[in-house]
Automatic annotation (TrEMBL):
Pfam families noted in UniProt: SLT, SLT_L
A GO MF term: lyase activity
Domain Transglycosylase SLT: 471-579
Record Gene3D superfamilies: 1.10.530.10, Bacterial muramidases, Lytic transglycosylase, superhelical linker domain
EC top class named in words: lyase
EC number: 4.2.2.-
SUPFAM superfamilies found in the cross-reference section: Bacterial muramidases, Lysozyme-like
Protein name: Soluble lytic murein transglycosylase
Gene Ontology CC: one annotated term: periplasmic space
Domain (Lytic transglycosylase superhelical linker): residue spans on this chain: 393-450
CDD domains linked to this entry: Slt70-like
Record keywords: Lyase, Signal
Length: 642
C-alpha cells in the first residue's frame, strides 16, 4: 500500500518509523516547552523532509527582541514550505506588538499569507508617513461584523477622532454586527456612540436571549435610534423561529419606526420567510420596496420566486444582484431559465453556452438545456504523466513532506504543504501530482489537484473509485446504485478512511456515532464499538445500510435521500412544497447552505461516476425529477437517525 512512498523516500520501513517517532517527540517537546529534548531529537531529523518543521519548533522556543542569525536564515528560505511563511507571520506580529517598525518594514513585503492583524500593523507603520491614507484604508476594515484584532484599535480610534470614521459608520457597523448576531461587538460599539444616543447594553442580551419577551415588554414610543435597532435585531431573531410570530408582533409596533426602518424590517422578514418556505415571502420582499438588500437577501428572494414559479421575479431578483454575484454559476443558470420562460431564448442560450463549459452541477444542467447528452464534455484523458515526470514531482521536498505528514495522520498540515507545493503548478504538473497522490492513496489530495486543471483533464483522477471490490457485496445486498454511492462518498470524505467532521461523523461514509450504533443493532453486528467506525469494511457496511434506509424512506429518490443523509430525514421531508416541484428547485431552496451545496455535488458526482462506470445514464434533470408535494403519506414520521 505504501510501496511508492517508500521508493520515493529511498528509506527502509524502519527508518521511516524512526522519523515518525522522532517527529512526534519533537511536537510533544514543543507542546510542553522542553527545549533540551527538542534540540536533541532535532539532530536526527536534520537531513529529512521534516527539518523545516523542527527548525520552526526550535525558533518558536527562543523568541528574542532582535532577530537572531537563526531567525534571519530561516526567513531567508524561499518557496520551501508554508511553515516558513507561517513563522514569518508570527514573527511580524511579534515585531508589530513591540513596534519594531524597521524590522517589520524589512520583512513584511515577503509575507505570502496575511491577515487583518498584520494588515493593521502594516497600516500603523504607514501611518507614520501617510496618516490620512492609512486611516482611509483602516476605514475599509471597519465595516466588518466580527471583532477586529487589537492592532486595528488605535487606527479606528484615530479615524473616529479625525472624522474619517463617522457616526453613520458606527451605526452601520452596529447593524452589521447585529445582523450577524454578534452582540459582544455591538456592546463595544455602544461606547463609541454620542452620549445622547447611548442605550443600556443589557437590552442586547435580553433581545438575543428571549426576543419575543423583549418585544412584548419594551416600550418603543419615542424610542431612540439605538433601541429601535435592537428591536429590529430582536424581530430578525424571532423571525428565524417563526416568521408569523415576528410579523404579528411587528403589526403592534410598526408605527414607531421610520419608513426606512419599516422597509428594512420587510427585507429581513422576506429573507426569513423565504428560508422557512413561507408563501408570503415575496409579498414581504415587495413591501421592502427599494430597500438595499444584501447578497443573502437577494439570493433568497430569487429562491422564493423559484418555489412560486414566478420567472419574472426570478429574472428581476437576479438582475438586482451585483455583477460579481450574478457571475456565479447558480445565478447564470437560473437567469437563463428565467429568460427562456420569458421568451428570450437567444439571451438564455448565450448564458447556457458559457456555463456548459464548467464541470459542475449547473454546468451539467446548462449543457442539457442546450441539448447535450448526459456526461457530454467529459471526453477522454488528455494527458498521461511519464515516469520521469512522476519521479520529478515525487522528489520535491514539499511533496515528500505531504506524504510523510499524511502517513502520520496529520492531514491539516499535509493539506497546507500540498497547497503550497502545487499553488503555481501548470495543468500538466497538477495531473502528475494527482497521480502521485493517487498512488499513495491520498485520494483527497489527488482530487484537489485534478479538480484545478483548466484545459487538460483526467476525469479518472477527478472521480477516483477506490475500494470497488470491497463495495460490491453491500451494493448488491441493498440494491444501491454504485454511481450514487460513489458520488456521495466523494463528497463525504474524498475517500479518506480516517476522515472526521467537526460534528463527529467518521470514516469513508461519514457516519455519525449514534447512527452507527443504531445500524449495528439493526444488522445484528456483534461486539460493535466506536473505534470500529474507521475500519473500511465496517464503515462500508454501516454506511450502505443507512443509505438504503433513507433511500427506502423516500421511494428511492436520490435527491431526497441525499438531503436526508446529510441533514436527516425529518428535514428532507419538511422541505417539500405544497405543490409538486422540479427537483432542481427543491435542491436550490434547501435552507441549509451546507446541505444545499452537498446535494448539488452528490448529484453532479453521480453523473460523472455513471459515465465513468459505463452505465446507461439518465440526464441530470431526469435524475433530479419532480419532488412530490407534501401529503399525509410522505410526511409520516420516521425516527431521524442522523
Amino acid at each position: 500500500m505504501r510501496l511508492v512512498l517508500f521508493l520515493l523516500l529511498a528509506l527502509p520501513v524502519c527508518a521511516l518509523a524512526d522519523q515518525e517517532s522522532d517527529f512526534r517527540i519533537a511536537r510533544e517537546a514543543l507542546r510542553v516547552g522542553n527545549a533540551s529534548r527538542l534540540d536533541k531529537v532535532a539532530e536526527s531529523l536534520r537531513e529529512t523532509p521534516l527539518e523545516p518543521y523542527v527548525t520552526y519548533y526550535q525558533l518558536r522556543m527562543h523568541w528574542g527582541v532582535k532577530a537572531t542569525p537563526a531567525i534571519k536564515a530561516f526567513l531567508a528560505r524561499t518557496d520551501e514550505s508554508p511553515v516558513v511563511d507561517q513563522f514569518r507571520g508570527e514573527w511580524l506580529k511579534y515585531l508589530g506588538e513591540r513596534e519594531s517598525w524597521d524590522e517589520f518594514a524589512e520583512e513584511y513585503p515577503h509575507l505570502v499569507n496575511t491577515d487583518n492583524e498584520l494588515t493593521c500593523y502594516a497600516l500603523q507603520l504607514r501611518q507614520q508617513s501617510d496618516a490620512v491614507g492609512a486611516l482611509a484604508e483602516a476605514r475599509k476594515l471597519w465595516f466588518n461584523s466580527e471583532e477586529m484584532p487589537d492592532s486595528c484599535t488605535p487606527l479606528f480610534i484615530e479615524a473616529i477622532k479625525q472624522g474619517i470614521i463617522s457616526e453613520t459608520d458606527i451605526w452601520q457597523r452596529m447593524r452589521l454586527a447585529l445582523e450577524s448576531n454578534n452582540t459582544s461587538l455591538a456592546r463595544e460599539l455602544i461606547k463609541k456612540l454620542p452620549k445622547a444616543e447611548v442605550f443600556p447594553a443589557a437590552e442586547l442580551s435580553v433581545a438575543a436571549r428571549n426576543p419575543r419577551h423583549y418585544l412584548e415588554k419594551t416600550k418603543f414610543e419615542n424610542a431612540g435610534m439605538g433601541r429601535r435597532m435592537v428591536a429590529l435585531f430582536a424581530l430578525q431573531r424571532l423571525a428565524r423561529q417563526s416568521p408569523q410570530i415576528a410579523y404579528t408582533r411587528w403589526e403592534h409596533m410598526a408605527n414607531y419606526f421610520s419608513e426606512d426602518e419599516q422597509r428594512y424590517f420587510f427585507g429581513w422578514q422576506g429573507y426569513a420567510g423565504a428560508q422557512a418556505h413561507d408563501e408570503r415571502a415575496l409579498l414581504w420582499y415587495s413591501v421592502a420596496g427599494d430597500a438595499a438588500l444584501n447578497p443573502k437577501q437577494l439570493a433568497w428572494r430569487t429562491r422564493a420566486a423559484l418555489r412560486a414559479n414566478n420567472w419574472h421575479e426570478v429574472w428581476e431578483s437576479i438582475s438586482a444582484m451585483s455583477p460579481q454575484q450574478q457571475s456565479e454559476g447558480v445565478w447564470r443558470y437560473w437567469k437563463g431559465r428565467a429568460l427562456m420562460a420569458l421568451g428570450r431564448p437567444v439571451e438564455a442560450e448565450a448564458l447556457f453556452t458559457d456555463l456548459s463549459r464548467e464541470y459542475n452541477f449547473y454546468g451539467q444542467l446548462a449543457s442539457e438545456e442546450l441539448g447535450g447528452a448526459p456526461g457530454a464534455g467529459m471526453g477522454s484523458v488528455h494527458y498521461q504523466p511519464s515516469d520521469t515526470e512522476i519521479e520529478t514531482i515525487q522528489a520535491m521536498p514539499a511533496i515528500q513532506r505531504t506524504l510523510l505528514l499524511y502517513r502520520m495522520d496529520m492531514r491539516t498540515e499535509a493539506a497546507k504543504e500540498w497547497a503550497w507545493a502545487t499553488r503555481n503548478f501548470s495543468d500538466r504538473q497538477l495531473l502528475v501530482a494527482a497521480e502521485v497522490a493517487r498512488r499513495n492513496e491520498m485520494y483527497d489530495r489527488s482530487i484537489n489537484a485534478a479538480d484545478r486543471t483548466v484545459q487538460l483533464h483526467d476525469f479518472n483522477l477527478r472521480y477516483p473509485a477506490p475500494y470497488r471490490e470491497s463495495m460490491q457485496e453491500n451494493l448488491h445486498k441493498h440494491g444501491l446504485e454504485e454511481a450514487w454511492v460513489y458520488g456521495l462518498m466523494r463528497q463525504e470524505s474524498r475517500f479518506a478512511t480516517k476522515a472526521k467532521s467537526d460534528a463527529g461523523a467518521a470514516g469513508l461514509m461519514q457516519i455519525m456515532p449514534d447512527t452507527a450504533r443504531w445500524v449495528a443493532r439493526q444488522i445484528g453486528m456483534k461486539g460493535y464499538r466506536k473505534g470500529l467506525i474507521h475500519q473500511l469494511d465496517v464503515n462500508i457496511q454501516l454506511g450502505t445500510y443507512y443509505m438504503k434506509t433513507v433511500s427506502h424512506q423516500f421511494d428511492d429518490n436520490p435527491v431526497l435521500a441525499s438531503a436526508a443523509y446529510n441533514a436527516g430525514p425529518t428535514r428532507a421531508r419538511q422541505w417539500r412544497g405544497t405543490q409538486p416541484m422540479e427537483g432542481a428547485i427543491y435542491v436550490e431552496t434547501i435552507p441549509f447552505d451546507e446541505t444545499r451545496d452537498y446535494v448539488k455535488k452528490v448529484m453532479s458526482n453521480t453523473m460523472y461516476y455513471s459515465k465513468l462506470f459505463g452505465q446507461t445514464s439518465q440526464s441530470l434533470k431526469q435524475r433530479l425529477g419532480t419532488i412530490e408535494a407534501q401529503n399525509a403519506k410522505n410526511q409520516k414520521s420516521y425516527r431521524d437517525e442522523r
